[in-house]
Amino acid sequence: MISDRDTIFALSSGRPPVAVAVIRVSGPRAGAALETLAGRLPEPRRARFVRLREGPGGDVLDQAVILWFPGPKSETGEDVAELQIHGGRAVIAAALAALGRIEGLRPAEPGEFTRRAFENGRLDLTAVEGLADLIYAETEAQRRQAYRQLAGALGRSAESWRSRLIETQALVEAGIDFSDEGDVPDKLLGPALTTAQTLRQQIVAALADEQRGERLRDGLVVAIAGPPNAGKSSLINRLARRDVAIVTPHAGTTRDVIEVHLDLGGYPVTLLDTAGIRETQDPVEIEGVRRARERAAAADLVLWVTDATAEAADPGGDGAGLGKVWHVPNKIDLAGVRREPRDCRAGQTFPVSALTGAGLPELIAALARHAGDALAGAETSLVTRERHRVALGKVVAALERAIGEGSQGREDIVAEELRLAARELGRLTGRVDVEDVLDVIFRDFCIGK
Predict the structure, then answer these.
(1) How far, in Å, CA of 195 to CA of 213, rounded?
(2) Residue 81 near residue 40, CB atoms below 8 Å
């Protein structure tokens, strides 16, 4: 803990007006701030009802409940005070202004409370990332996944692997130190390599999840593509249940990719409304078509929307080359097309009417099933970010090199590779050398967390 650092404060609850607002104060002068406003410190971890004043003998700010958490047994590892006040804008503004007038206090930066918790050892870096994901979780599956990370799912495993690696490294180095003791090195190197192989298998198994953890965190991507004027924007508006895309009878209206986030059966799905795919001489539309093809090719699923009333051949093709494609003939209210979804050799077909909503329930139900199948088991994945996957990949590579060198009896190289593997696991949890990633992780936190 750092005793001479600033004491920070911020509103930690929702945007006013609310019934009750929570203001947190963390740092060495948190106790002094509470005494200034409330007159005295309450018993630690016991709520007390008081009148808050601007200072000793000052005007009353509000009636409030206060709590006092002496460090290091607090959320941030520092002294922490909490004010629970009425949630009107004027009350909150007055309380924050009073705190700002106390010497040694300043408003918190985004994520600063959590960063102090990390720096004081209350959270490891994977738990910090889990907290960030929990704040921004949009579906039940994402919430469960984020909470597992916050509770230490990956952090505990990484620390266990790291502890065993350090013990294994010690065995190898002991063999090097006692190399003049006859068969001692052989007796120590063998068990060390066995442990390294076991750890390698465990980490490889954690990585062999088809990136489902990252996919659940980011959401399944479904691109709505097809020729112009097929009703793609009308369809995404229907699915989103609001007007997110401009709809006109003129071809080329959609120029850029529009994203909409949906919760289907508890799983996150990102819909992409793309530009109509056709040959054009308009340079702006050419760029829109290029982006449409690029995003559709990278999507997990493409809904290829066509005009069911069109007599001519589809000028945009049938979505060939775009991965998994479902065909969605639109405007069946005008064409009298059979409504039942059906399978075909090129993929499933879901006739719909974006105007009347006919066929939409069947399409939405199929999308929910597809999301559930694609993301099944993702909540239990240890790896939820690319940073995790890269770090564990480096650990596996180092262990493989150690095992290979160990078969040649090169104890000194084995010890170095084990050290590198343990170091990567330390970077994963934030124990060593992570200054380069901290700003990236904390920049998206809100003020008050």
Answers:
(1) 27
(2) no
Unique residue bearing structure tokens 């701030």: 33
Torsion of CA 344, 346, 348, 352, to 10 degrees: -100
Buried b (16+ CB within 10 A) or exposed e, 104-140: ebeebebbbbbbbbbbbebbbbbbbbbbbbbeebebe
**Single-letter amino acid, residue 240:** A
| pTM for this model (two decimals) | 0.79
* 3-state secondary structure at position 58: coil
Q: For residue range 294-347, list pLDDT tens digits in order.
A: 777 778 888 988 888 875 444 445 555 566 889 999 988 886 655 555 554 446
- The alpha carbon dihedral of 318, 323, 328, 330 has a sign of negative
Strand ordering across the sheet containing 347-349: 258-264, 267-273, 220-225, 301-307, 325-330, 347-349, 342-344
- Residue type for 1, please? M
H helix runs in 375-410, sequence order: 386-407
Measure the CA–CA gap between 447 and 449, rounded to whole angstroms.
Answer: 6
